[in-house]
Amino acid sequence: MLRIDGLSAGYGPVGVLHDLTLEARAAQITCIMGRNGAGKSTLMKCIMGLVPASRGSITLDGVALHSLPAHRVPGHGVAYVPQGRRLFGPLTVAENLQIGLMTRNMGDETRDRVLDLFPRLRERLDQVAATLSGGEQQMLAIGRALCLEPKVLLLDEPTEGLQPSMIALIRDVVLRLKETGVATILVEQRPDAVLQLADRVVFMANGTVADCSERADLSPDAPQFMAYVGV
Amino acid sequence: MGFGPFLLLALMESAVTAATLALTAVGLSLVFGVMRVVNVAHGEFFMLGAVAAWFITNFIGGPPWFAFLMALALAPLAVAAIAALADRLILKRLDYEPEATIVATIGLLYIFQQAALSFYGPQAMPVEPPFNFRIQLPWFGYSAYKLSVILLAALVLIGVWLFLTRSKAGLVMRATQVDRETAQAFGIDTDRVYAAVFALGAGLAAIAAVLIVPIAQAHYLMGHDPLLLAFITVIVGGLGSLRGTVIAAILIGLSDGLIAFFWSPTLAKILATLLVAMVLVFRPQGLFGARTT
Ligand SMILES: Nc1ncnc2c1ncn2[C@@H]1O[C@H](COP(=O)(O)OP(=O)(O)OP(=O)(O)O)[C@@H](O)[C@H]1O
Ligand SMILES: [Mg+2]
């Protein structure tokens, strides 16, 4: 599905990702773990074309995403929930969703499905996004991405700073998407959440893949968690 | 004429200034709000609009109302096209770097001015108003054309507001203004949005100029005053706040007109500049801008 091969990228002359190879399969959740600054968010941006690849390739079902301008990437079915949500704050909930719908010309059906997943958003359609609670903002960030009916969903630390009930809700949504065949790449820092959700876990260090393990081969006290996340 | 009617006349004259200032300043404010570009050449788009109106009315001929309508439709389009080209050829290549774009638009200012001097000449030339009758009030007669300028400017502003708040293109512009990178992640071609916003901003200045040119004549240096007043308006109204810009334009346009009418235009400019200094010291976010940190 989504293949990343020998990818190198960075900001200007500063290299962040080095020779990174990774695959995300349909109907699977690929979790990415790594210390702060390991390059997880940079990898997400690079897939979206927001950080240019200096070497290597990113292909989705044969389409070379790395050679497209950033605004052409989501059209191929890649949706992005950035770290820190990055909502269009002064715009309303409805307008934020509208932006997502416009990306791939989705209509009311998609919108209804998203609002069914997050009924709290339906009650707040005319509210300005910046005034939502943290949990509601995260629902909107995910809802906006789901408005693309994505084939690949990139989630960058979606549970950062949320309370357990909200985390559980987001987990349920991610699992439901998996059942519909979406390839999910989830950046997540907490081992317990990763063990609940992941099919495969990719450990990143210094901008490259340090270890890649199947869920079945990992236990809560696996040495990788200590080595690459420090917990 | 008693003081009451005299004041009314002064108010009506100032309202014309306020109306065209609002158009010009909203254009400047849009460009700054979405692109973070301080467009020093904005006044020259105003001037180009006026000069284009002169060329168009003279080239087309026919009855004045027809020539004027053509100028009103075509001059802003031409100026918008020039602006879109300038965005593509210059601003985009500078990656919209704030300092670099200031220097670049100063360069544009001189290019447009010298181009106008070469092709249009140093003289001031009038454009015939589309109609010439006066509305007879009990105390004085007043140009119906001036009243129609106020009305048209208000209609255009309402149109801009509807476009920004109700249309898909407006939504895309507002999203790009908030967060360019995330906008791209949702399929928005922000390069095109920037070109469109720069064109729209310039087009608004050009509309203001076409409306004013039957009253004030076209001249290659006429961009200075609108630029200064538009900057003052945008700063007082709060950078990037369109509502604030319109309110500030009405306040500044009216007071500028009144002071110039009763005392002198120079005093009006001095007071307006003083107002900006006060606003910058006591309310740097502008009178209507949101406080951001
Ligand atoms: N816009 C930028 N310009 C320059 N350097 C950047 C930029 N964004 C990130 N970096 C650098 O790239 C490296 C990787 O950052 P990145 O945000 O990808 O890490 P991360 O793994 O997501 O960390 P975290 O867990 O804190 O989110 C860091 O050293 C960071 O300083
Ligand atoms: Mg990160």
Automatic annotation (TrEMBL), chain A:
Keyword DNA-binding assigned: no
Using the record's annotation, list all stretches that form the ABC transporter domain: 2-231
Classification via Pfam families: ABC_tran (PF00005)
Q: Which GO terms describe its biological process?
A: L-amino acid transport
**Top-level taxon of the source organism:** Bacteria
Molecular-function annotations in GO: ATP binding; ATP hydrolysis activity; branched-chain amino acid transmembrane transporter activity
**Keywords in UniProt for this one?**
Amino-acid transport, ATP-binding, Nucleotide-binding, Transport
Q: Which InterPro entries match?
A: AAA+_ATPase (IPR003593), ABC_transporter-like_ATP-bd (IPR003439), ABC_transporter-like_CS (IPR017871), BCAA_Transport_ATP-bd_LivF (IPR052156), P-loop_NTPase (IPR027417)
Tell me the protein family, please. Answer: Belongs to the ABC transporter superfamily.
Please state what the protein is called.
ABC transporter ATP-binding protein
From TrEMBL, chain B:
The UniProt record lists the keyword Transmembrane? yes
Q: Where in the cell is it found?
A: Cell membrane
Report any Pfam family annotated for this entry: BPD_transp_2
What keywords are annotated for this sequence in UniProt? Amino-acid transport, Cell membrane, Membrane, Transmembrane, Transmembrane helix, Transport
Q: Where are the transmembrane segments?
A: 6-33, 45-61, 67-90, 102-122, 142-164, 193-216, 228-254, 261-282
GO molecular-function annotation terms? transmembrane transporter activity
Q: Does the keyword rRNA processing apply?
A: no
Q: How does it sit in the membrane?
A: Multi-pass membrane protein
**A single BP term in Gene Ontology:** amino acid transport
Q: Which GO terms describe its cellular component?
A: plasma membrane
Q: Matching InterPro entries, A to Z?
A: ABC_transp_permease, BCAA_transport_permease
User: Which PANTHER family has this protein been placed in?
Assistant: AMINO ACID ABC TRANSPORTER PERMEASE PROTEIN, BRANCHED-CHAIN AMINO ACID TRANSPORT SYSTEM PERMEASE PROTEIN LIVH
Which protein family is named in the record?
Belongs to the binding-protein-dependent transport system permease family. LivHM subfamily.
Which protein are we looking at? Branched-chain amino acid ABC transporter permease
**Organism, scientific name:** Paragemmobacter kunshanensis
